[in-house]
Every structure is written in C-alpha cells, then in structure tokens.
Design a protein that fits this description.
Layout lengths: L3 H29 L8 E6 L7 E8 L7 E8 L4 E8 L34 E7 L5 E7 L14 E5 L11 H6 L5 E6 L1 E3 L4
Antiparallel strand pairs: 1-2, 1-9, 2-3, 3-6, 4-5, 4-7, 7-8
Bound molecules: copper (II) ion (CU) and zinc ion (ZN).
Length: about 200
C-alpha cells in the first residue's frame, strides 16, 4: 500500500502531462501550418494587353481528394466562341507571349484535349467565351500539379485567339499545338502561400 499510492499518483500525473502535451502539440501544429502545411494555390494574372484581354486564373488541388487540379478561369476582353487554353513550358518575359515556348509536355505525348487518353500535361482544351467576351469556368486536370515532375509553377498560361482542334486537325501542327492561332493573352504561374 505504501508503494501503491505514489504509483497511482505518478500514473495520474503522467496522464495529465500527456493531455497537456497533446494540447500544446495541436496548437503548435496549427501555428506552423500557415505556410507549407496549407493547401497550395497558384495564380496567374493576365494584365490587360493591347488585345484587351485580362483576368485571373487560379490553380489548386481538387477538394474531392481525386488528386486532380481545379483551374478557375475568369477572363474578359476575348472574342466570343472557343479559344485554345494551355499551360506552356516557360515563364513570360515582359509581355511577350511568344516567350512562353511550346506546350508543357514533360511526359512527351501528342497534343490533345484535357481529358483525352493522350495529351500534353499543359493541355486544358478550349474555353468558351460568351457574347460579352467573358468566361467564368472551372476546369479539372488530372495531369498538372503544383509540385513534382508535372509542376506548373513558374511556367505560363496562354489563351489563344482561335479554337484548339485538340489534335484532330490531321496535320503536324495539330499534334503539337492544336492550331490554336495567335497568343492573345498570357501570364506566369506563381505559387501563393496559402488559401486561408
Ligand atoms: Cu497555347
Ligand atoms: Zn498541347
């Protein structure tokens, strides 16, 4: 009995310490998770250019746990209809959309639609512009990411003046870039710290 009392006391003491430690641990984790632990979000801002195109694109991991990336697109100043829309391999130098280079294609595939069995990682298909020249849509890509070999951060997004033939054009250019026409808007993709 003499030994039992200190033992019980010790047990109770160590249990209360565990609770304190775990509470402290939780709040520590919270305060550290404003940076690396938070959901990564990347944005790409098209500043109004001589074509009159501007807008914002935001990329973030899909919240459904699918591993896809959601691409939120809000653009204005475009001509109504379908416009090719892609991630290109290089950042934009100045305001020259030609500096974007070719489509981002780390897996060395042919050009295609966003959900085709074969397509460039950067292929996002066409975006549909309404009669007022605007688009507000969300695309879902199962290939591009914000880390690893298919990371698009530091690369660029280009919106084209014409429709992407999605690799079905029957010529060599179709399998390279979808014959999407001139580059009417572009921006460099940059990583934001957090979406909180
Ligand atoms: Cu393009
Ligand atoms: Zn492509």
């Amino acid at each position: 009995m003499k030994l039992l009392i200190p033992f019980v006391f010790l047990l109770a003491f160590s249990a209360s310490m565990r609770v304190l430690t775990s509470q402290g641990g939780l709040s520590d984790t919270d305060s550290q998770c404003t940076g690396d632990c938070a959901t990564p979000v990347a944005t790409c801002r098209i500043l109004q250019n001589e074509n009159g195109v501007d807008g914002l694109i935001r990329i973030e991991p899909a919240s459904d746990g699918s591993g896809n990336s959601d691409v939120y697109v809000e653009l204005s100043g475009l001509t109504p209809g379908e416009h090719g829309f892609h991630v290109h391999e290089s950042p934009i130098t100045g305001s020259d959309c030609e500096s974007a280079g070719g489509h981002f294609n780390p897996t060395n595939e042919d050009h295609g639609d966003i959900d085709a069995s074969e397509h460039h990682v950067g292929d996002l298909g066409n975006i549909e512009i309404d009669e007022n020249g605007n688009v507000s849509t969300v695309l879902s890509s199962d290939t591009l990411t914000l880390s690893g070999p298919t990371n698009v951060v530091g690369r660029s997004i280009v919106v084209h003046g014409g429709q992407d033939d999605l690799g079905e054009g029957g010529d060599e250019q179709s399998l390279a870039n979808g014959n999407s026409g001139p580059r009417v808007g572009c921006c460099t993709i940059t990583l934001q710290g957090s979406n909180i």
